[in-house]
Write a structure and sequence with these properties.
Blueprint (H helix, E strand, L loop, with lengths): L1 H6 L1 E4 L2 E6 L3 H22 L3 H8 L11 H18 L5 H6 L8 H5 L6 E2 L6 E4 L2 E5 L4 E5 L8 E4 L2 H18 L25 H9 L9 H12 L4 H8 L5 H6 L4 H9 L9
Helix pairs in contact: 2-3, 4-9
Amino acid sequence: MWVKVVKLKKKRNGVETDEPLLGDFALNNLLRTLKMAIEAASEKYETRIKTISNKFIKKRPVSRPEPDSEVGDAATRIKKVFYEDLDRDDPRWSHFMLVLLGLRQAERLGLQLRSVVLDGENSKLRIYQQLDFLKSKGGWYLKDTTKNSQPREIPIWGEFLDAIQKRLELREKWSKQEDWNPDSKFADLLFLGEGGKLITRRQDTPMWHTLGLEMRGHLARHITGHLMAVNNISEDTAKKVLGHRSDAYFHYYRMISTASAGQELSQLYRPGSLT
C-alpha cells in the first residue's frame, strides 16, 4: 500500500504527469499517521507489527527547498518591501503584512473579524481555522481547525496592528458600496476583496508576486522563523507564534542562523581564549 501511495502521480486534464501526487513533507505526515495506527494495533493485539512497520516503511529525507543564504536574502527583500517600498495605502500592504507573523496562507485567508481582538497592548489574533478546498465540501470552505489541530493566539503590535486596522477600514469602505455582496459563508472574513469577493490561494499567490517577490508565499513563514532565530527569540515563544508542536523550529529555523553560529564559535580561538 505504501509503495502505491509513493508512486502516485498528479494528473492534468486526465493525463498523468511526472510530478508526485504528494511531496516529501506530505508523505512523511501520511507515514507518521500510518505508523501510529499500526503501533496502536500492535499494542492492542500484542503483535510484532510495529517492528515490521519500522523495517518496511521508511521516512523520506526532507529539507527546506531554500538554502540558508536564500532565506536570509529573502528576509532582507521582504522587510524592504513592507517597511520601505510599499505604500501603506496600497491594499496589498494590509493584505500581506501578517505574513511576517508566520501565518500560513490558509490561516491568514481564513481569519474572521472575531479572530481579531483589539485591546491596546493586549491586542491579538486568534488562529483557529483555515480556508481550505474540497470537492466533497462544495469547493472552498472554512475548516474549523489549524494544520496541527491546535488553536493559538498571536500578539499584534506596531505595523501588524496598523495593517489590521487598515484592513478593517477598507472592509468598512467597501461594504458601503452597491456591489458589496459577499457569500454568506465567508461574509465575516477579514480578507475579502472589493465587492466582498472571496480571496483564495488562486488569487492570493499571483497578488503576492505583484510585489516583486517572485518566491513561494510559504517562504515568508520560514523567514519569520529565521528572523526569530537570528534575534534569539526563545523557542517557546517562536513555537507559540508559528504554531509548532514538534521540534520543527529547532531543526528548520534555529539551524538557519549559521552566521550567528559562526560568530559564536569564532570566540573559541580568539587571543587569550585558550588560557
